[in-house]
Amino acid sequence: MNFLSINSLFPNLALEVQLQLCILLPLLAIPGIIATRRSPNIRDAISLCTSLLVLSLVFSLYLALDRGEIIAAHWWQILPGLDIKFSLEPLGMIFALIASFLWFVTTLYAMGYMRGHNEENQTRFFCCFAVAISCVMGVAFAGNLLTLFIFYEVLTLSTYPLVTHAGTEKAKQGGRVYLGILLSTSIVFFLFAIIFTWVIAGTLDFTPGGVFGETEDTIILSVILVLFIFGIGKAAIMPFHRWLPAAMVAPTPVSALLHAVAVVKAGVFTVLKVCVFIFGIDLLEELASTQALLYLAGATVLLASLIAMRQDNLKARLAYSTVGQLGYVTIGALLASSLGVIGGSMHIAMHAFGKITLFFCAGAILVAAHKSKVSEMSGLGRQMPITMAAFFIASLSIIGVPPAGGTWSKWYLLLGSMDAQQWSIMIILLLSSLLNIAYLLPIPIKAFFSDDKQSSSHAGMKEAPLPCLIAISISTLGCLLLFVFPEPLHELAMSILDQPLNDNSLEHNSLGQITNGE
Amino acid sequence: MILGLYNYWIVVVLMMIGLYIIIAHGNLIKKIVGLNIFQTSVFIFYISIGNVEGGTAPIWGEGITLYSNPLPHVLILTAIVVGIATTALGLALAVRLKEAYGSIEEDDIQAMDDQKTDNKHC
Amino acid sequence: MLAHLPILQVIVPLLAAPTCLILRKPSLVWLFTLLASASAFVISILLLQQVMAEGTLIYELGGWSAPWGIEYRIDKLNAFLALIISGVSTVVLLAAHTSLEKEIPQDRQTLFYILYLLSLTGMLGIVTTGDAFNVFVFLEISSLSAYALIALGKDRRALWASFQYLIMGTIGATFILIGIGLMYQMTGTLNMADLASRLPEVPQSRTLFTAYAFFIVGVCLKLALFPLHLWLPNAYAYAPSIVTAFFAATSTKVAIYLLIRFTFSVFGVEFSFSVLPLETLFLALGLLGIFVASTTAIYQNNVKHVFAYSSVAQIGYMIVGFSMATSAGLTATLLHLFNHALMKSALFLALGAVVYRIGSAELNDFRGLGRQMPLTMTAIVIGGLSLIGIPLTVGFVSKWVLVVAAIENGWWPVAALILLGSLLAVVYVWRIVETAYFKTPEPGRKPVKEAPITFLAPVWILVSANIYFGIDTRLSVEVAQAAAESLFGVSP
């Protein structure tokens, strides 16, 4: 894909440096944010500029990856044989692209929301945001499981102040559930699985085809797979999904970016990485636990959708919807088929755009109309037409019908389930689409077409603040564009499975520069 | 055989008496006394194993060829000094405890501490 | 000069102690103590370098050759421990002058420093000596000064804690004395290297079993192995803050050193683990220690008590590593020795700063402290994260090495239990975090300032060390591994 003819956006910066800058730049912005805390405009401008810079760096890396370059960096060794290192491959590229793009969009949104809602502690908010994005970049670019785990854990910790931002008793309780579930699963299951993998395989590097040799005992590997799936709590597989609804106590920009895009996507991204690059698609097919976990993911999808239907609080409904949608990606990973992997990785992008739009709208409704319950939103469409229209389009993406991008990812997931001959999964996917319609579409429809008594009580409410509207429009446009132009995403997704990851003939010295194997 | 090992029996009996006193008595001074008895039993143990049959006390003298082993005596001198220091410290603590609590009975001290904790919570 | 380093390691603080009497003003005494401790630290660094380069150093006191004379043997294990002890001592002393202002009356401060130096001498002596009875002597020196130091605490419960510690500690030390006596009886020598070569030749294994058993029980009392840990929580909670910061990092570590030294170098691995069911026994007691102590920590209302019970739990981790009887397990124990010293000294020193400002370490008084003492609370949070085992801290490295050792040994359930123990740490650490950051201070309480720089500097040095050694583990892991491997190679 070369509709841009420039070869590199930053011709003077080595690719390895660009990679590391993506991770470090948000952290470097923090002193600036703290220093300018008295002048909110400058402070927010710094956030915005940093996000724009990161976005351009990521895009430049995308161009380089598309050209076939190998991009990797190495930081230092923690224990013998265990390094912090980064390497870029298509799946990470997808994640990094949507995360950095949507960070930019969310910063825009947050500016409008936080001011419109008169939130306190905005400086702390933007600082923690920056740390969280830095961790997301670290997860996306991680070259081995240890690096990924480190950034994964720091992500949990850095989002805790964001979740408990309000400082109220309810926020504290929500924070407890959030931290409790995420830390417990990651220490007891995830870390255990990682160390197990290290002892058995001798390496934690992400390798195409997996790191386990031919002769390993499949029973042990099945157990390790179970430990991984339960351990990656951010992928919200039941019964470890409770943290997501609990985290809705956070301000909406937090929910939007982190729990529709960054934190949850880090979870399913890790699941995909583990399935494709630690186990390998072929090995997954042989393991006994894959089928059981697949059913568990399917059950998560269905149950979450059913629970979502019963939620009156809009954010709670969206939270459970996210749990279900994450199940899609996990299904894609566990189907042990290349089509499933393609579907899952595309869904990371599609769902991100769709869900973030939905959350943006929920926040806009909260700020402008002070409504948080679905039952109160009838007839709101007259006062907030743009918001509700965006809601409608984003719902289409989640449901998976044209003209929204979610169509394609659902399509590939269905193909994948047919390819793997998992008919029950196919039925679950189709059923859940119906459920998605049931809990999402009534909202915009009632907003526009209802003649309830409520409609008159909305009189006098305006649309959302301007920055919020801009952000909403951008993300909605994204949903539509991804339907019309899915090829770049599709190409990236397809190349996940045939990319040679670590080119061992070339050595990298500590600066990430390629030497001749000295 | 058993009679010949009488020194070990004495050591064991003293050790048990000492430990019993420490555990069973609540009076601080008695605890220190028990500790002393316990330590003394160990001293006796060391010295008695240094005894050489037919040997005299390890003090150099003309014409004496067989001495008991002097090394345990030296070790025990050190240990006795340590024991004295411990006793002195223990007694000093007992004096301070008396000043602070008005009693040197373990039960009374515990009761006063528990009461204080309860009062704080009220 | 360099040839005499082993003895200087002990002599410098020993001579510094009575010299303090000559200096009148407490500030001068503090400076002098700091100097003495810093010199000991420098000597330990030099010793470690020498040992890593040349191998075991042997120094004969007064020129009398072993086994009749007393010799000092420094190998990698000793040097490592001497480094930890003198290093922590020096950093903690930086805050001592300020801390003592509020905790100890002016006329007793000189005595405090004298006792501190004597305790330091004792501990350094234990780790450097190669003679078994010398071990007992230095053990008692350090213990007696410890009892006195703890009794200097402001709260009157410190007196009772000290008395309890005195009774239990003396019983422990006397058990060790019995063990040494029995060893002497069988072999006729007190030199540890000599014992190592003579013990296998001795036929009567029942006496040896008794000797080893007494010794082990005495040492376990000193290292606060569950259930012999009852003296520790009160002693740590009511002692002056500087004392706790120093002891939490060093006194139990010295006892673990004795355990390792006598099991591996003197009695030998095969003997020790066959004559007593050490593997099962220590594994069970270690795991029990982890879970019971961590659970007790959750219910404590005094933050010093929380971290004291946490120390008992961490010692449990070290004992689990020891019980594996493999080089990997021992590496994990030695590594955790180092890392835990960093963690706990940072935490207790930060608590000392809090006590300095608000006069209490009760959890209720921590309300709102997150805003009023941000730097201190951040230090406590990082220390807490290290206890939990979050990556990029030393706690994570310890846990990793320990779990790897467990899995390699085939002990998968133990590995799972080790990780589960971390969850309990999350609970008790997070109680403190929530109180400090989410609760508002009680109405009517005066606003509190941040801790003075004399506290913040050493606290943050230790916290940075926590993070640094969690990232650059070369020093700690290499030395721990080298020490562990040499211990396994030397066993007769």
Give an overview of the whole structure:
The complex is a heterotrimer of chains A (518), B (122) and C (492). Chain A has 518 residues and is mainly α. Chain A has one domain. Chain A has helices at 15-35, 40-67, 90-116, 122-141, 145-163, 169-201, 218-231, 243-246, 252-279, 281-286, 289-309, 314-334, 338-369, 385-399, 406-419, 423-440, 442-449, 454-457, 466-484, 487-495, and strands spanning 72-79, 82-87, 507-508, 514-515. In chain A, the strands form two sheets. Chain A has a two-stranded antiparallel ribbon with strand order 1-2. In chain A, strands 3-4 form a two-stranded antiparallel sheet. Chain A is globular. Chain A starts with 14 loop residues before the first helix and ends with a strand. Chain B is mainly α. Chain B has one domain: Helix Hairpins. Chain B is 72% helix and 0% strand. Chain B contains four helices and no strands. The radius of gyration of chain B is 21 Å and the shape is elongated. With 492 residues, chain C is mainly α. Chain C has one domain. In chain C, 77% of the residues lie in helices and 2% in strands. Chain C is built from 21 helices and two strands. Chain C has helices at residues 5-19, 26-54, 76-94, 96-103, 109-128, 132-151, 157-187, 192-198, 205-222, 232-238, 241-267, 269-275, 278-298, 303-323, 327-358, 369-372, 374-388, 394-408, 412-438, 453-471, 474-490; strands spanning 57-60, 71-74. Chain C is globular. The interface between A and C is medium-sized, with 26 and 29 residues.
